[in-house]
Amino acid sequence: xxxxxxxxxxxxxxxxxxxxxxxxxxxNKAVAVAPTIIFPDAESGAAWIQIxxxxxxHMFFPRVDMGQNANTGLAxxxxxxxxxxxxxxxxxxxxxxxxxxxxxxxxxxxxxxxSRPIAxxxxxxxxxxxxxxxxxxxxxxxxxxxxxxxxxxxxxPRLSYAELVDNTSSMVEFDGNRPAPLLYTFDAQRDKRxxxxxxxxxxxxxxxxxxxxxxxxxxVAGILYGxxxxxxxxxxxxxxxxxxDVANVAGFIQLVRExxxxxxxxxxxxxxxxxxxxxxxxxxxxxxxxxxxxDRLVDVDAAMAKGDLxxxxxxxxxxxxxxxxxxxxxxxxxxxxAAQEPRAAIARFDQSSRLEIWTGTQDPFGMKRFAAMDTxxxxxxxxxxxxxxxxGFGGREHYEVERDAVRLARAVKQPxxxxxxxxxxxxxxxxxxxxxHRLRIAVDEVGNLSDWWYGYISGHVVFARERLPGWLLPVxxxxxxxxxxxxxxxxxxxxxxxxEYNDVDLPIDLGVWRSLNGAPAIFAIESxxxxxxxxQGIDAVDFKIAQMHSAHPRLQNCLExxxxxxxxxxxxxxxxxxxxxxxxxxxxxxxxxxxxxxxxDAQAKQIKILHMCCAQDVGMAVNPGQLRAQVESNLVWxxxxxxxxxxxxxxxxxxxxxxxxxxxxxxxxxPSLDIEIxxxxxxxxxxxxxxxxxxxxxxxxxxxxRASGFRALRLPISFADITANSAE
Amino acid sequence: MKLKVNGVERxxxxxxxxxxxxxxxxxxxxxxxxxxxxxxxxxxxxVVHINGAPISSCLVPIKDVAGKDILTIEGLVAQDGSLxxxxxxxxxxxxxxxxxxxxxxxxxxxxxxxxxxxxxxxDIDNAMKGNLCRCGTYDRIRxxxxxxxxxxGQGR
Lengths: 728, 156
Description:
Chain A is an alpha+beta fold. Chain A contains 17 helices and 30 strands. In chain A, 27% of the residues lie in helices and 25% in strands. A seven-stranded mixed sheet of chain A has the order 13-14-11-21-18-19-20, sandwiched between helices. In chain A, strand 18 (344-349) and strand 19 form a beta hairpin. In chain A, helix 2 (70-82) runs parallel beside helix 3 (110-137), helix 8 (364-375) packs across helix 9 and helix 12 (518-536) packs parallel to helix 16 (696-708). The radius of gyration of chain A is 27 Å and the shape is globular. Chain B is α+β, with helices and mostly antiparallel strands. Helices cover 36% and strands 12% of the residues of chain B. Chain B is built from five helices and five strands. Chain B has helices spanning 21-28, 85-92, 102-115, 121-128, 138-155; strands at 2-5, 8-11, 47-50, 53-56, 69-71. In chain B, strand 1 (2-5) and strand 2 form a beta hairpin. The chains are: A alpha+beta, B alpha+beta. Chains A and B meet through helix 4, helix 5 and helix 15 of A and helix 1, helix 2, helix 3, helix 4 and helix 5 of B.
């Protein structure tokens, strides 16, 4: 990959016209993991901050907005460094023509990866301005003190940024070869003004007034409407295609077929709906789509009976044939992203074959590359305008609805808007795989863990079929799938340990889903540890803390904090009530513990979650309000995963199609919440977007165990599972 | 064919008369603040008021609302740009995450507060359980409705 010249690029785009621009440029490389997935280096082009001639601060948001509001936190860092109010920052969402490649927005990495580069760029800009102020006033640098929106002399005048900047363009670039300036954001001594404040999400007014912020809201002149058939699985081939009376549908314009792609373009959305009902496709499948087939493929016991699993993550003095105190299998279901916004894209080719795409995607630069490959255009001829996402959760990383719009627009030579139906979303959203987990644990004579043997099978995540090109898959799969290994290493110590797994192809399309394998694996581990505590008749929180052997003080602290938090509200006395705890580490850097109070209501035949507490160590809390919002979101998702969400397949088709047959949490499922954000001002921000979900489902399952005696071995848990168990 | 949207009489052209109210609002009348999500009336994302009653606009053929009064999220902002107390409460509690469902949530909450000026948790559960929020902002929606109820009560 050729070195990218930021300087040249910025000049050519006009981005640096007037004012002073600060850049952080640690590395320039863009790493293509595979031709179909580009993950530009997280630090490339991370920070773009500018003071304009009128003194206003301008920044490009490096992340896409999908509800996590990470850009607000990053703007707070810029405001802290530059001594301005975050609300005064003029922030823009760049198109793919405005900036060099930015990384896919994923992995709860925004604050972890970007906070320091952003702070360095802003601080470098501030110190450059300070030098200007010193020279203008003829004073030594040390006499130039910070002031709101500029500087003041120790004795003498105030100088705003506007007085230090004119219309000539200049750039300062931090290249990593010199020490960073003092970073106010990370200065523990500083009394911070912007960082640590619960700033409201930037742009929040637009979200409560119905302003056009999502892809399908964008007005484009002469727009037509289209949609394509989504196959039940991407390696399906069309066996037969009937198009019925589609040509006579009022408003019909064109049927487009290219190999396995079939779509229509019409004058109105209603005409598209009518035209699509005329099209009947039958599919040739390579695997039967059936629950029995999924169960067979993830059957961890059958695989472990044959010998070692393919990937060994941990292997220390492993002992196979001992008496196990815990020997349990946990099964976790397929789940769908079910984002509130069905994905949408608008594509427009102009006269000179330049292609414009409006889309809400986690990976705008990936879309640009894929669209170029799909159309044969050069990448320079494609521009992607990223829009706000109506929810991402890992499900918006691929060139899919964009492909539909591009192919249809090219066929009709007019701009086309495509929005998937809810059924399309369930069919084609690359679900979280099913997985099965066998936990074997033994304790010594004093109750400490002696042996730990954890084997599991999951569908592929990062290396799922149709996420990488077929030729690359066998090679990629020799390595660990970083989605499948999430959560597998427990925080508990034992002298004899083995952790192993297989990852497998399932008959449905799979991909990245909030927390990846973190939530399934930690559900299994935390359930097994809880059961071990129950069987020993000891306190589960004490037991878990003891078995960490002081190796995870931050996790231990979360557990202790959540225990204290939960004690503030008494669990109602009587049959059917229970309180459970669970904790976990997401991605080796994010620490969380959760308690859940449940009522197993034998009369109403339902499981009701009454109250949940969460203590999460977030490192430095840049925006406590938004961190709390992410915790709330993860707690709600925990309820969905533990009790409600059941993705159904049958008869070679995906049966889950809408919110009537795939239940997600609603207002009346909500417990009361008590959340503690543990701020560690001297530690880097850990990220929060998919953290608490790793512990929530096990906390609920453990509470049900206390309430009813029923140990949930399969998610989602229904009331019928409990009664079936007690009837046995 | 005419209808009144946010107090303004609007004409629906011939090509759009077989569409849903939701589609006409979004694609024909330049009011994209009401959004599509499930298409079967299961999620509340597209709720608008028709003659004062909250209804999922994805289910309503445009033909059925000829001559009726439609209120959408865009109609809650006053002429001078000031926000409705519900919208302000939503900002004060920092409710939205992705934001996509929030127009429907606010319109549903508005209907609740018209019927019940001081709703408790059970009232809110009952009125709002048809409005999904995949981000899980329910706790803040609950708080916002109570906050707005107080502000609106003071205004009376």
